[in-house]
Amino acid sequence: MVERYLKAGSLVEAMQFLNHYEGRARVVAGATDLWVGIKNHNTKAEAFVDITGVDELKTVEISKDYIRIGSGVTFHELEKNVQIQKNLRALQEAARWMGSPQIRRMATLGGNLVSAQPAADGMVAMSALDVAVEMVGPDGTKRRTLESCYKTFGESMIDSSREIVTAFVIPLHNQAHSYFGRFHLREANALPVINCAVGAWMKEDGSWESRYILAPLGYHPARLRAMEDALAGGLLEERELYDTIEKHIEELTFRTSLVRGSAEFRKQIAVQLMHEQIIRLWYNHEQEGESDAKH
Ligand SMILES: Cc1cc2nc3c(=O)[nH]c(=O)nc-3n(C[C@H](O)[C@H](O)[C@H](O)COP(=O)(O)OP(=O)(O)OC[C@H]3O[C@@H](n4cnc5c(N)ncnc54)[C@H](O)[C@@H]3O)c2cc1C
After folding, report:
1. Smallest Cα–Cα separation from 72: which of 126, 100, 39, 114?
2. What are the pLDDT digits (tens) for 136-194?
3. What is the Cα gyration radius of the chain?
4. Average pLDDT, the chain
5. Which of 8, 18, 149, 257 is the most exposed place for a label (fewest CB within 10 A)?
C-alpha cells in the first residue's frame, strides 16, 4: 500500500527520501511502466519518490569529448534535441519510433533502462554508442557499463528503492556514426518484432570499432560480437555483406512469440533490418531507420 507520494526538488532531496524509507520507497519518473506494474499489483512500495522535478536529471550537456544525457530526459526531448540529432542519430531514431506521442512525452531514458525490457528502444540504441551509466546510491556515485546493468528478463541490477540513475555519458568519438532500425506491425504503441542499432567510430590508432546490436534475443540488447569480428576487415561487396550477416544471424536463437511472430519470420526480418542499417553505416546514408518491409 502506497502511503506517501513525495516530489523531490533536487537529487539530494530524492536520495534523502529514499534513505529515509530504507528500501521501502520507489523512484518514479514518467510512470509509463510503473503504472502498468501498479495496475497488475506487481509494484509494492510504501512511498513513491517522484524525480520529474529534479532539474539536474533533465539536461543534455555537450562538451568536446562527450555528451551527457540526464536520466530524466524524455523520449520527446531526445527526438527534438539538435545535438542528439547531429551526434547520436541511432538514439534520435529510436526516440522517434518509440511508443506514441503521449508516451514519448512522459517516458524517460532512465526508466527505459531500469525496466530492463530486452528490446527497449532507447537501450538498444544506447548499446551501439559505447555508453557509461552514471548513478548515485548509498555508497556515493558510480559508473557502470550498460550491459552490466541487466540482471535477468525485466529486472535490472539497479535497486530503484535505494539508487537513482543520473545520466548516460557517451564519448564523442572521431567520425562516429550510428543508426537504428525497427520492424513493427502498426504505427504507434507497437512492440518491436525486431529492433537493431549499429554504430562505428575511429579509434586513436586509425582503426575502426563497430557495434551491431539486435533485440529481443536474450534478457538485454544483444551485441553481435562474432559478427563485429567478421566484418572488421573492411568494406565488403553488398551480396557478400548480406551473406555474412545471414550466416551470423542464422546461428542465433530466436523465440517464437504470439505477439512478435515465429522465430523463422523474425530471423528473416533481423537479417534484412541489420543489412539495411549496416549499409547506412558504411555509406553514411541519411534515410530513416524504418524497414521497407513494414506493414
Ligand atoms: C502504451 C505503452 C507503450 C510503450 N511503448 C514502448 C516502446 O515502443 N518502446 C520502449 O522502449 N518502451 C515502451 N514502453 C515502455 C516505457 O514507456 C519505457 O520503458 C519508458 O522509458 C519508461 O520510463 P518511465 O520514465 O515512464 O519509467 P517509470 O515507469 O517511471 O519507471 C520504470 C522503472 O524504472 C525505475 N526508475 C525510473 N527512473 C529511474 C531512475 N532515474 N533511477 C532509478 N530507477 C528509476 C522505476 O522505479 C521503475 O522501476 C511503453 C509503455 C507503454 C505503457
Report:
1. 114
2. 999 999 999 999 999 999 999 999 999 999 999 999 999 999 999 999 987 778 889 99
3. 19
4. 93
5. 257
CA pair distance 42, 258, nearest whole angstrom: 23
Query: At 46, which CATH number?
Result: 3.30.43.10
Q: Is 158 in the pocket of ligand 1 (CB under 6 A)?
A: yes
pLDDT at 188: 75
Q: What is the CATH number of the domain that holds 269?
A: 3.30.390.50
Provide the domain count of the chain. 2
Tell me the residue range of the domain where 242 lies: 175-283
Q: Within 13 Å of residue 139, how many CA atoms lie on the same side as its CB?
A: 3
For residue 289, what pLDDT is reported? 45
Residues of the chain with pLDDT under 70: 285-295
Distance 106 CA to ligand 1 centre (A): 9
Q: How far apart are CA 292 and CA 289, in angstroms?
A: 9
Between the CA of 225 and the centroid of ligand 1 the distance, in Å, is 28
Name which residue sits closest to atom 32 of ligand 1, judged by CA.
111
